[in-house]
Amino acid sequence: MRLSGVGKRYGRGAPWILRGVDLDLRPGGLVRVEGANGSGKSTLLKLVGGVEAATTGTVAVPGRRAYVPERFPPALPFDARTYLLRLGRIHGLSAAEAARRSAYWLDRFGIADRSGTPLRRLSKGSCQKVAVAQALLAEADVLLLDEAWTGLDQEARTLLDEAAVERAAGGGLVLFVDHDPDRLAGAATARYAVRDGGLHAAGPVPDDGSAPRVRIEVTGPLPERLPGDPARTALADGGTLLDVPARHSDALLRSLLTGQPAAHIRSVRPGRSG
Fold it and tell me: 20 CB contacts (<8 Å, ≥6 apart)?
């Protein structure tokens, strides 16, 4: 994903909200965007998501994008299930796959019993769960979370934390904004601050080998792509040793246990760092 010389203002002669923004990010990143209220954080995410067009510069975002706003507009003529099915189709899923993923996320967020309820009759928290579900079911290459945790209960917030980490570990790029300074603090790979119309690095977290790692011994067939892109070492007894940054270990274990067929996990232990 690359932004080159991007600027945004609403109308000729209006003040610039963003100007001269350059950003180059690779898949697998979990990137925090921060800044004061009104600084342009949401505008930046909308430009990346294609929700709004840049006034100047270019925005190049390959693959599928999914965006979750802070406030979901409930005045839409759909119930929760129908809305998710339609968004799944827009994201390019088959009807059957859209139905499967919609049911999965409705159940994960605990609102399967309200799937036939019109959006306008759902609570704010339930509406926000639907908004998050429509983005997660896309399994997008670029996931944009604009204070998406607002209005969610603690269980749903934890679920969204896990989903964001897992999407990045699976090769997606996640950009998020949240008022909680500790949100995903242990998992973020980089931080950027929007200030005075510009975008500034505010604390990159390089993978320099010093971060904690986890080693997992498994037997059984493994897919070509695994969360966290673990290093693989073939073992003499036919097993495989996977070495992965600790921040991706939960997502990797979940993928191994839920795969078809599931891998047999023989051991999990701390790896070397540094």
Answer: 5, 6, 7, 57, 197, 198
CA distances in angstroms from 249 to 159, 192, 212, 226, 254, listed in the order given: 16, 25, 10, 11, 9
Write down the pLDDT at residue 257.
85
Q: Report the alpha-carbon distance of residue 64 to residue 47 in Å, rounded.
A: 14
Strand bridging mode 30-34 / 173-177: parallel
Kindly state the tokens that stand for 178: 């949240």
Stated pTM of the model? 0.80
Cβ of 30: how many Cβ atoms within 10 Å?
23
Amino acid at 226: L
Three-class SS of residue 129? helix
CB 179 within 8 A of CB 147: yes
Decide if 89 contacts 98 (C-beta within 8 A).
yes
Q: Is the pLDDT confidence value at 209 over 60?
A: no
Q: Which fold has domain 2-201?
A: Rossmann fold (3.40.50)
- 182 residue type, one letter: D
Q: Is 142 within 8 Å of 64 (Cβ atoms)?
A: yes
**CATH 3.40.50.300 location in the chain:** 2-201
